[in-house]
UniProtKB/TrEMBL annotation:
Gene3D superfamilies per the UniProt record, alphabetical: MetI-like (1.10.3720.10)
GO biological process annotation, one example: transmembrane transport
PROSITE patterns tied to this protein: ABC_TM1
Protein name: Bicarbonate transport system permease protein CmpB
Pfam families for the chain: BPD_transp_1 (PF00528)
């Protein structure tokens, strides 16, 4: 309850600001319609009009809520007009990219921690890779993979992987190096092999860092999947909904896809947080 109240307070404040901002954003169109009709708008008429326009610059929250309700609850999930259908298309690429990024990130982190050459050579490139704008890189990845006959889910997953492996590398390197010198010396006095030191000391110590990294990686992976849908001209997925909404000026559709993407990320991050609690509790680590 103590954590729910601040969240509800923030959501209420955002909703209030959203409603207030919708009035001046949509007012020009309301005044234009009134001028052509030869009527004068009162404040109540202005507010009512700006919160109910068909193609507003900034839709009111209840308009987005109605759109989400109509495209989730009132549509069959196999319908191409269902937001759940489009969410699943994006989520499947997100999960595949997240899995690939996690495996790649952990493997690179282990190599960096245990191999001096990789530490000196790979880590700078890992950091440099994230300076390339994904919006510029995504079309090239799509074109190259299509040229060798790879299309569909995998190109989007690779873009997701590109964004999600970085936080895993950084978090795992820090986690694997987190044991103190005294603990490492103790493992040495017990004649522990490097493999035993890894499995018995370094890996357990890295778990809190890993789960924190996975939360960031999941959010980044979702962004990657959505960005990956944009240059392909995809007809399914949340990115496709955003693209179609921008083509036809359907701002309500755009905002509903954005809210759905945010909700999807929140659910997946919460799921990772739940797994984190269970795993760390079983390992005897308080969080």
């Amino acid at each position: 309850m103590r954590s729910v109240v601040p969240v509800l307070t923030v959501i209420s404040a955002i909703m209030a600001l959203w409603y207030i901002a919708a009035v001046p954003m949509n007012a020009p169109w309301a005044y234009d319609k009134a001028k052509r009709a030869g009527v004068e708008l009162s404040l109540n008429d202005l507010v009512a009009d700006t919160w109910s326009q068909e193609k507003p610059k900034l839709p009111a929250p209840h308009q987005v809520g109605i759109e989400i309700w109509e495209t989730t609850v009132q549509k069959n999930i196999t319908s191409k007009r269902s937001l759940i259908y489009h969410s699943w298309i994006t989520l499947s690429a997100t999960l595949l990219g997240f899995g690939l990024g996690t495996v790649l990130g952990i493997m690179l982190a282990v190599g960096i921690v245990y191999n001096r050459v990789m530490d000196m050579s790979v880590m700078p490139w890992v950091i440099a890779s994230q300076t390339i704008p994904i919006l510029a890189l995504a079309p090239m990845i799509i074109v190259v993979l299509n040229a060798i006959g790879i299309s569909g889910l995998l190109p989007k997953a690779i873009i997701s992987m590109y964004l999600s492996f970085f936080p895993v590398v950084v978090g795992m390197v820090k986690g694997l190096r987190s044991p103190e010198v005294m603990q490492l010396d103790q493992m040495h006095t017990w004649h522990a092999s490097p493999s035993q030191t890894f499995w018995k000391l370094r890996l357990p110590a890295s778990m809190p860092y890993l789960f924190t990294s996975l939360k960031v990686a999941m959010a980044a992976s979702l962004v990657g999947a959505i960005v990956g849908e944009l240059p392909t001209g995809a007809i399914a997925g949340l990115g496709a909904r955003l693209l179609a909404g921008s083509y036809y000026g359907q701002t309500i559709q755009i905002w509903s896809a954005l809210i759905m993407a945010a909700a999807l990320a929140a659910v997946m991050v919460a799921l990772i947080g739940l797994i984190q609690r269970i795993v760390l509790k079983r390992m005897g680590m308080a969080i």
